[in-house]
């Protein structure tokens, strides 16, 4: 029978956890990497959240096979909550496991441990999840089998590009005619004027180049339409983390020597994630942001040879011009029916009739150890 362990933070994880993180990020990209969770935990979480990371082994002495990084807190009315190690900086979350390790019995044991742990956890909330992930439905089934009342909910639309082995020029020919015309016309104007310069900083660049790019990114962001970062140290930390791992593609455009646009793209696991973009609004008429996107897109398709470009969070109209398809990101909330507070929360959110029916079905099954 699988064994479930828990750890108070990432530093407390045993060495064999690294293999699980590496395999998961190689298949699913940045957001399941240990480096991502580390920067988020150190620089992106609001107080008073604390970490609690669950690991599963097939038996004593066996290597870890999957991980579920969580954070825990006590909410209103003493509700004890477990949530995925994610927040507004996260565009994807999920069970951390290698593709070969996707076995439902491990998830069932994990879900049973979460439901039975004392003192009781009242609510488990995981988001944003990929419903096409092979672990999504087994996780949902495991939580229900452990006696928890579950509900799936919508998070956001995610636009992405299936590169399908194309070159950038082949891909560009499929762009909307209006966008192609803008790129040609504005590109020629800027090239003729000599006012603009474009650079893409990667993990191969020296530390001082990365720091200069961070400063340029922050200068552009401060002059953009965007709200200040809730965690100011998160983005510099993420950029440095990506540089250290070779994932960094930080594009910076200058006009007349001044930073005018900046975009953070992250290449990991064959996916180029367009994480953050901003431009100084005084240069909006130059289409400087679109021209920078064009150069980064060419880089990740022709040089990095990515299989997918992911525009991450949001259904913004401009994303549809660059991407080819969309998909859903969703969440799972599970209420612990073994807990009085969990039972009350389930009745409030799901309705008393549904919860009563679930309790009736549970009583009809063979009794479980509480």
TrEMBL record:
Q: What is this protein called?
A: Acetyltransferase involved in cellulose biosynthesis, CelD/BcsL family
Q: Which InterPro entries match?
A: Acyl_CoA_acyltransferase, BioF2-like_GNAT_dom
Q: Name one Pfam family in it.
A: Acetyltransf_6
Domain BioF2-like acetyltransferase residues, every copy = 177-320
């Amino acid at each position: 029978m699988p064994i479930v362990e828990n750890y108070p933070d990432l530093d407390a994880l045993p060495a064999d956890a690294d293999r699980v993180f590496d395999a998961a990020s190689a298949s699913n990209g940045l957001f399941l990497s240990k480096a991502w969770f580390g920067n988020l935990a150190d620089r992106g979480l609001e107080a008073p959240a604390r970490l609690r990371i669950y690991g599963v082994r097939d038996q004593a002495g066996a290597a870890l096979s999957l991980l579920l990084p969580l954070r825990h807190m006590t909410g209103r009315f003493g509700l004890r909550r477990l949530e995925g190690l994610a927040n507004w900086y996260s565009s994807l979350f999920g069970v951390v496991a290698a593709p070969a390790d996707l076995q439902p019995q491990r998830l069932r044991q994990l879900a049973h441990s979460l439901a039975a742990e004392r003192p009781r956890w009242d609510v488990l909330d995981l988001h944003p999840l990929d419903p096409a992930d092979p672990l999504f439905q087994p996780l949902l089934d495991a939580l229900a089998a452990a006696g928890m009342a579950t509900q799936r909910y919508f998070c956001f639309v995610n636009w992405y590009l299936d590169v399908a082995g194309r070159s950038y020029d082949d891909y560009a020919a499929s762009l909307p005619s209006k966008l192609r015309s803008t790129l040609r016309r504005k590109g020629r104007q800027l090239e003729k004027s000599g006012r603009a310069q474009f650079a893409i900083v990667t993990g191969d660049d020296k530390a001082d180049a990365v720091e200069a790019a961070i400063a340029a990114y922050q200068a552009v962001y401060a002059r953009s339409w965007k709200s200040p970062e809730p965690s100011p140290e998160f983005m510099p930390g993420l950029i440095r983390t990506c540089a250290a791992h070779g994932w960094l593609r930080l594009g910076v455009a200058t006009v007349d020597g001044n930073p005018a646009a900046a975009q953070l793209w992250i290449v990991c696991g064959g996916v180029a994630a367009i994480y953050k973009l901003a431009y100084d609004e005084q240069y909006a008429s130059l289409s400087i942001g679109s021209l920078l996107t064009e150069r980064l897109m060419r880089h990740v398709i022709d040089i990095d040879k990515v299989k997918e470009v992911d525009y991450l969070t949001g259904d913004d109209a401009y994303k549809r011009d660059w991407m080819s398809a969309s998909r859903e990101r969703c969440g799972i909330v599970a209420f612990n029916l073994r807990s009085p507070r969990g039972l009350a929360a389930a009745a409030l959110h799901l309705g008393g009739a549904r919860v009563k029916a679930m309790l009736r079905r549970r009583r009809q099954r063979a009794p479980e150890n509480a």
